[in-house]
Amino acid sequence: MRIVHIVGNRPQFIKLAPVSRTVQRRGHEEIIIHTGQHYDENMSDIFFKELEIPRPTKNLEIGSGSHAEMTASAMVGIEKELIKIRPDAVILYGDTDSTVAGAMATSKLNIPICHVEAGTRTFSRTNPEEKNRIVTDHLSDILCAADKESYNNLVKEGLESRAILTGDVMYDSFLTYGDKDSEKILNKYGIEDNEYILMTWHRQENTTDIRRINLILSLVSKLNKKIILPLHPRTKSVLIKLGLWDTVLEICNLKICEPVGYIENVTLLKHSQGILTDSGGLSKESYFANRPCFFMVDLVVWPCLESINQIIHLKLTDNETILKEVKLMDDTMKHHASIRDDVTKKNELVKEKINFFGDGHASELILDGIEGRLQ
C-alpha cells in the first residue's frame, strides 16, 4: 500500500513520528509531503532529525501569509504531487491550513483520507482551527479520535460509521521519547528541577489585540517565578512591530529562547512547576507529564482535562483580575508539588488517574483502520 502523509507544523511532525514507524513496520510504502507552513529550522528540520522521521519527499515551501493564501498555495501544490504519486490513502493530522488544504485537494481526486485527531471541537465558529477540523472531518473517510469526547462529537455530526476511537498519537510519542539528557538540558537554560514555569504563546487571539498582549505581559511580570519562553517567530515579530520588544526584555523573571525541539520540550515540560500556554497540544501534554496547565484562551479544547482541573482557564480582563490569577497559579502549583513530594498521595493519584488518551498504541489502531477500509 502507498500512503502519503501531509504535514506542515511542529505538532504534526510529532504526530507523524509514531504513525510513520508503524507504516514502515507493516511494510507499506510511505511518502511525506511537507507544506512548509513551519519553515524555520527550529520549528521544522530539528523534529525530523531527533524523531528520526524520513525526510520529506517534497517541501511545498508555502511559508507564511493569510489563511486564504496559505490554504490556496498548499492545495495547488498538494494536488500536483498527488496526481504524480497516486497513493492508496492520505493521512492528515490536526487542524492547520495545511490539513484543510490536504482534505480538499485529496477528496477531489477521490483518494481515501484518514484524519488523525478528528472530532475535537471548541464550538467557537470564530476559531480558524475549528473551521479546518469541521471541513476536514466531513471530507475524510477514516476519522481517528484521540479521546471519547472527540468520538462523541463525530457521532453527533452523523459521522459514526467513519469514526474510530484510537487514542492519541501524541501520547505514543511522549512515551517513546520520554525524558532524555534532562540534566544537560536544564543546565543549558540555567534552571533547576521544579523551579520554573514553561510558557508558550502563539495563537492569533493572543497576538492581534495589543490590550490582550499587554495583559499577558503584565501577568508574566507579576509571577514570582522564573519563566522559560521558547518564543514563536510570529509572536516575536508582532512584539517588535508593536514596539513592545524592549518591554519584554525588561521583564527580569522571563527567559526567552529560540523554539526548542521535541525532546527538549518534553524535558522542560516534565521538570517545570506548571505550564502557561495558549497551545491545545501543550495543554494536553501537560496531562501526560502531570503538571498543571494554565490556559490563556477562552476556548474549551479538552473538556475531559478541564473536568479534573488539569487545565485551568485564566481570566485576563484587567490588572485586578490578573493579581487574582497570579495567586491562583501559585496556590495550584504548590498543591501539585505537595502531592508529588508525598509518595503515598502520588501513588494514590497514579491509581486513580483516568487514561483519557489511550495506552500508547494509537498508531497501531490508526493503521488497522486504514488497512481495514482499503481491504
Labels describing this entry:
13 strands; six-stranded parallel beta sheet; 17 helices; 375 residues; alpha/beta; 15% strand; single chain; globular; seven-stranded parallel beta sheet
Task: Describe the protein in words.
- With 375 residues, this protein is an alpha/beta fold.
- 50% of the residues lie in helices and 15% in strands.
- The protein has 17 helices and 13 strands.
- It has a seven-stranded parallel beta sheet, sandwiched between helices.
- α1 packs across α17.
- Give average pLDDT, whole number: 92
Largest sheet: 7 strands, parallel
Q: How much of the sequence is in beta strands?
A: 5-15%
Instruction: Identify the overall geometry.
Output: globular
| DSSP summary, beta strand count | 13
Radius of gyration: 20 Å
Unreliable spans are none
The helix/strand series, from N terminus to C terminus, equals EHEHEHEHEHEHEHHEHEHHEHEHEHEHHH
Please bin the fraction of helical residues. 40-55%
C-alpha end-to-end distance: 10 Å
Strands side by side in the biggest sheet: 3-2-1-4-5-6-7
Number of helices, where a helix is a run of at least 4 consecutive DSSP H or I residues: 17
Structural class, from secondary structure content?
Answer: alpha/beta
Outline:
The chain has helices at residues 10-25, 45-50, 67-85, 97-108, 128-139, 148-156, 169-177, 182-188, 210-222, 233-241, 245-249, 262-270, 280-289, 303-307, 319-341, 343-352, 362-374, and strands at 2-7, 29-34, 58-59, 89-93, 113-118, 142-145, 163-165, 196-199, 226-230, 254-257, 274-277, 293-295, 311-313.
